[in-house]
Amino acid sequence: xxxxxxxxxxxxxxxxxxxxxxxxxxxxxxxxxxxxxxxxxxxxxxxxxxxxxxxxxxxxxxxxxxxxxxxxxxxxxxxxxxxxxxxxxxxxxxxxxxxxxxxxxxxxxxxxxxxxxxxxxxxxxxxxxxxxxxxxxxxxxxxxxxxxxxxxxxxxxxxxxxxxxxxxxxxxxxxxxxxxxxxxxxxxxxxxxxxxxxxxxxxxxxxxxxxxxxxxxxxxxxxxxxxxxxxxxxxxxxxxxxxxxxxxxxxxxxxxxxxxxxxxxxxxxxxxxxxxxxxxxxxxxxxxxxxxxxxx
Length: 296
Description:
Blueprint: E1 3-4, E2 11-12, E3 20-21, E4 28-30, E5 47-48, E6 55-58, E7 74-75, E8 82-85, E9 94-95, E10 102-105, E11 109-110, E12 113-114, E13 121-123, E14 126-127, E15 130-131, E16 134-135, E17 138-139, E18 146-148, E19 154-155, E20 162-164, E21 175-176, E22 183-185, E23 188-189, E24 192-193, E25 200-202, E26 208-209, E27 212-213, E28 220-222, E29 229-234, E30 237-239, E31 245-249, E32 252-253, E33 261-265, E34 268-269, E35 276-278, E36 281-283, E37 293-295
Parallel strand pairs: 1-3, 2-4, 3-5, 4-6, 5-7, 6-8, 7-9, 8-10, 9-12, 10-13, 11-16, 12-17, 13-18, 17-19, 18-20, 19-21, 20-22, 21-24, 22-25, 23-26, 24-27, 25-28, 27-29, 28-30, 29-31, 30-32, 31-33, 32-34, 33-35
Antiparallel strand pairs: 14-15, 36-37
């Protein structure tokens, strides 16, 4: 059986076996699809601890097996938070609190969590008849952050950050610590954006692996670059390069530029390997005059 411990206007309906609402107001655990037939408990072992107007809703997609639904979803509190999975093999998802956070989609979504914040989203969908899984993803907080169709990925906080698939490409193990409007997309693997604004890591036709943008604004790592890093600055680009490092503003490293450290402003480099390139940089001795080195 299921239990409502207290509160007001809380509801458990449609085969929410062994589920519980402990307190709060207008919270609901339910199963909404017509195929939630007798003898099949689509939404079992789920809990809403408190809060207001929180919903856990599990339904079955057309043609899906009725056997062994997962359940075990939890919302601790907050307001208008929702776990709405449209596939009963989804399970073990968690929302801690905050407001208008959602874990939802037609694909399988497992072992994912939103700790708090406002209007954050974790999802998985079915595209072209193929069911794509989202699993083991986490959003710590912030606002309007979004993770979809990826695995083992996280967004710590910030606003408007996204980790997503793109044009049939699916990545995993990517992280955005914070900042605003940063994006890791496609078949990126093991990549990281620390913060800043409008930074993006995106692949071309193949995988974009183990790249990092630590901060800055409008920086981009793209087209199968590997093991490269933009430390900061504005409008820097690494394109196809491997093991490249960029610090500065308006620099561009193109294909066949590997093992490069580029420091400065406005450089366009290609077909250069294993060098340190400095532009418009002055290095002074400890007294400000001795040991002066100038490079252009």
